[in-house]
Design goal:
Distance between the termini: 88 Å
Shape: elongated
CATH topology of the largest domain: Multidrug-efflux Transporter 1 Regulator Bmrr, Chain A
Number of domains: 2
Order of helices and strands: HEHHHEEEEEEHHEEEHEEEEHEE
Helix content: 25-40%
Low-confidence stretches: 9-24
CATH class of the largest domain: Alpha Beta
Mean pLDDT: 86
Number of helices: 8
Number of strands: 16
Length: 338
């Protein structure tokens, strides 16, 4: 009995020492890994920026086949979110900041614990991309400290996982087509224009907005044929009067710019768009692919050059998508300079 008693006391002492060790273990961590991926920076950034690609390369999917992911209304850029369930419990992630081809900041949450930070940095190196994946937290929960202590430290626990994810990302990016390309942003001068368009106010929801555009582009194509307009008479376009990410609402018109006099069609509104200095960028690729990133690039250009913009801003759909290759569909984006 004494032997059993001493054994139990020893086990208890070891448990107490272990708990004390874990309690004294650092609660904060900052672990990062980098990898050079021999692909264009836009391609690498776009892959990470789209949460729907994470199931293809996220390292935890290699280790846990029970993960079931549910996506939010937005899956790309700021506001993108997803959540999941698995045998190890629920989790969620949200993108809270993004600078096109430069950085992404996300919050990662497991269960009801406070979120940790995920920070991505992208650097162009001779046509290739150096990508850095960083994970950090100031006050990790006790259970996470326990697993870290048992693994030999935060770097030993998280580092191999990040390395595995970056290796997976390298493989996935190579196999993915580049959905679009962007020109350099430049300052141009425009003349006064006349715009006819159908007005819409919707939530900032990619699916909903894309549906509105798809339906209206067909409607506009039919209308221009009915009016007998030639290609030189009009250019399909969208005019944005409001884009409020805080309220989650946007107001815009879908229609066309005219180069000739025309009676106002039913349901349309006529808007005179002033000419002047605009920041302009061209995006080449299918509609809906890279549009958000293109606007981020123009916004970053304005910020770097300390330029202020205002509404309305507009998009021109330059060529006929049915007559050019998918990768050559051109959308020109114009931001007015104050």
């Amino acid at each position: 009995m004494k032997f059993l008693k001493y054994t139990l006391l020893l086990v208890l002492a070891l448990i107490l020492v272990g708990l004390l060790y874990v309690a004294m273990f650092p609660s904060n961590y900052d672990v990062s890994r980098s990898k050079l991926i021999k692909q264009p920076i836009t391609k690498v950034f776009n892959t990470v920026n789209d949460l729907r690609t994470w199931e293809k390369w996220g390292p935890w999917h290699d280790e846990d086949s029970t993960i079931v992911v549910t996506y939010g209304k937005i899956t790309t850029g700021v506001g993108a979110s997803d959540s999941w369930t698995s045998k190890d419990g629920p989790g969620s992630m949200k993108t809270i900041a993004a600078k096109a081809n430069k950085s992404i900041r996300q919050e990662l949450r497991f269960g009801d614990y406070e979120p940790s930070d995920i920070i991505w940095n992208f650097e162009e190196v001779g046509g290739d991309t150096k990508v850095t994946w960083r994970m950090k937290e100031d006050e990790a929960p006790f259970i996470f400290k326990f697993f870290s202590a048992m693994s030999g430290g935060w770097d030993e626990m998280l580092g191999p996982m990040i390395d595995n994810g970056l290796n997976n990302l390298d493989r996935v990016v190579k196999d993915m087509p580049n959905p679009y390309r962007l020109s350099a942003t430049q300052i141009v001068k425009t003349t006064d224009k006349v715009f006819f368009g159908y007005p819409y106010t919707t939530k900032i929801d990619q699916t909903e907005i894309q549906k509105v555009f798809t339906e209206n582009m067909i409607k506009i194509s039919s209308l221009t044929e009915k009016l007998g307009l030639k290609n030189d008479d009009f250019t399909p376009a969208a005019l944005y009067q409001k884009w409020d990410e805080i309220a989650g609402e946007t107001k815009f018109h879908i229609g066309f710019f005219l180069t000739k006099e025309l009676p106002l069609p039913e349901g349309m509104e006529k808007i005179n768009v002033k000419g002047g200095k605009y920041a302009m960028l061209s995006k080449f690729g299918d509609y809906g692919k890279g549009d958000y990133e293109a606007h981020l690039v123009v916004g970053e250009y304005l910020k770097i050059n300390e330029l202020e913009t205002t509404f309305p801003l507009y998009e021109l759909y330059v060529n006929d998508a049915s007559k050019v290759k998918l990768e050559d569909i051109q959308t020109d984006i114009y931001y007015p300079i104050k």
